[in-house]
Design brief:
about 300 residues, alpha+beta, Chitinase A, domain 3, 4-stranded antiparallel β-sheet, two-stranded antiparallel sheet, about 45% helix, elongated, disordered N terminus
Length: about 300
Amino acid sequence: MRLPRSLFACTALIGGLSFISSSQIAYADSSSAGAAKAPATASKAQPVTDPNMVIATVNDQKITASDIQRAAASLPPQARQLQTSILIPLLIDQLISQKAIQIEAEKEKLQDKPDVKAAMDAAAGNVLQNAYLEEKVLPHVNDAALKNYYQTHYASKKPEEEIHARHILVDTEAQANDIIKKLNKGADFAKLSSQLSTDKSTGVHGGDLGWFKREDMIPDFTKVAFSMKPGTISPKPVHTRFGWHVIQVLGTRTAPVPSFDQVRDQIRRDLIREEARKIVDAAESQVKITHYDEKGQPIPNTPVNTTGNGAH
């Protein structure tokens, strides 16, 4: 089973919502509402820390400081770089417009239409799922956990061998053999790759695959490439599911173990995925799951969960 993308949205919540304070919101709002007429009053405004402070109302519906903070937190990083005196009035106007549209939609009872109701229920479900995952997962993604993961998956492992290679990929063994003959007579590898390779993504770069480890390539390709010496061309074509390869190894090296800071963000993502997977598995083990065929009949012989009362 694959997790829906929405279940991993908790990754985006880690940054927090506090980069814009309530006092900044209050100041920016007062500025946009006519602070130019009374700059002294605005400059003496007392800091406001109450997230429930009302910024505006649309009919009787309130827009609060926390609403602005949530809206700001959902913006892309580039938008967050705007000055708060510019950003916050824009967010307030946006929320006012959204409230006005929502009020008109509710007057027309659009929320009672089956497709709209289904979409609203799905959105509410996603919010609840993400809130649950955030609450259960994030406590396990702390500095100590990140460092332990680094020690286990990076620091304690031996440096791995990498090679730098390029290839020419063609459809038939005969084509590949002909290319090897041309290369042995002095033909330019990069030119032949750009002209003949069916791998267009690397062909435009002379067939360059860059540096890679053993597990980065499919086994048949890896076995030959890692047995070759730098500067050599594969003596015969290498067959994989993609076609026939002519390989040239350009160099070898031992990949250095990355520092903790270099992989910190990747570790964080990996830990979140691992912990989320544990939470999902635990939740599924507590429920009964039945699959149905195209006739609406339960599918028999569904494997039973061994960790709980549910069945898949």
